[in-house]
Amino acid sequence: MKVLAPAIKVPEHAPAVSSAKPCIVTRNLTAYFGNSAAIRDITVSVPQQAVTAIIGPSGCGKSTLLRCLNRMHETVPGARVDGEVEILGTAIYGEGTSPIAVRRHVGMVFQRPTPFPTMSVRANVAAGLRIAEKTTQPKGSPDEIVEEALQRAGLWAEVKDRLDESAIALSGGQQQRLCIARALATRPRVILLDEPTASLDPLSTQKVEELVYELRKTVTVVIVTHNMQQAARISDSTAFLLAGELVEFDSTRNLFTAPRDSRTESYITGRFG
Fold first, then answer.
1. Residue 16 has what pLDDT?
2. Whole-angstrom distance, CA of residue 237 vs CA of residue 215
3. What is the pLDDT of residues 12-57, one digit of tens each?
4. By the number of CB atoms within 10 A of the CB, which of 80, 132, 164, 179 ranks highest?
5. pLDDT tens-digit map of 141-166
6. Which residues in the chain show pLDDT less than 70?
7. Is 31 helix (H, G, I), strand (E, B) or coil?
8. Number of Cβ within a 10 Å radius of residue 167
9. With the CA atoms of 114, 120, 122 and 123 taken in that order, what torsion angle do they form, in degrees rounded to the nearest 10?
């Protein structure tokens, strides 16, 4: 087995996947659009307080898998899920489980920044608190929660004097970090990022990557990325999907330097995809 070409540098921080306690566990997870399966029979354990990247060619099911982890997949007409997903030992599918409750604990940020255009910076961050039940409201005043979320998103210093301005007055990179702050406001256990830097310039991309690297200290992060360099820079573990199937899941270092499956090696060395 050849090791990956040296163009992709893998940081030393990446631990063995098996050394971390699972945060997310999927068992035989299959997601359908109508009668067509977008992902099939995926069983994987995602470690806590770490960054896990999902890579693979376009159309392989990366975003579908991500959306299954907070029950966003089922919002598409005709979509359904078979199998199991547990987060911190609690099943998120099944009778009596509220999708809204799941999403309070599993935040999501999309490829393009999606601030609410008619709301201020402050109102955008606080938006998630409006639907939270009183029993799950984060402690602290709304202003304290907004400041904490913006601090965690690395945006407070840039917007503290602009909290009542329209969110769309911010730059694209700032808007994306605002969306991350909005997801953090409910103090979730998991943050899902679907190619969050795909529409950003290099400087904004760097800031988001630095933020993701820091978030692992307090939250589990799962990021879909088409950029293998990015996966190598910021993730602890990496899952490689191909045609809706999980080909390989390992520490980022192992997957990028000594992949076990020849299909993984072919993809990361640029032979296809």
1. 44
2. 15
3. 444 444 445 799 999 999 999 999 999 999 999 999 999 999 999 9
4. 179
5. 889 999 999 999 999 999 999 999 99
6. 1-20, 131-138, 273
7. strand
8. 25
9. -70
Using an 8 Å Cβ cutoff, are 77 and 33 in contact? no
CB 92 within 8 A of CB 24: no
Burial of 133 (0-12, 13-18, 19+ CB in 10 A): exposed
Residue 8 contacts residue 243 (beta carbons within 8 Å): no
Q: Which residues contact 189 (CB under 8 A, 6 or more apart)?
A: 23, 87, 88, 105, 106, 219, 220
**Contact call for residues 177 and 121 (beta carbons, < 8 A):** no
Degrees to nearest 5, angle at CA 82 with 76 and 83: 135
Query: Both tokens of residue 20?
Result: 């971390």
The one-letter amino acid code at 113 reads: P
Note if the pTM is more than 0.85. Answer: yes
Residue type, 230: Q
What is the token pair recorded at 10? 């893998």
User: HEC string of 237-261?
Assistant: EEEEEECCEEEEEEEHHHHHHCCCC
Kindly give, in sequence order, each residue whose CB lies less than 8 Å from that of residue 265, ignoring residues fewer than 6 positions away: 1, 2, 4, 259
Token pair for 206? 């760097």
Place of tokens 């009596």: 96
Residue 193's DSSP bridge partners are 109, 223
Element (H, E) at 232: helix 228-234
Distance in angstroms (rounded) separating the CA atoms of residues 27 and 30: 9
Return the H-helix or E-strand segment holding 151.
helix 142-152
**The pLDDT of residue 94:** 84
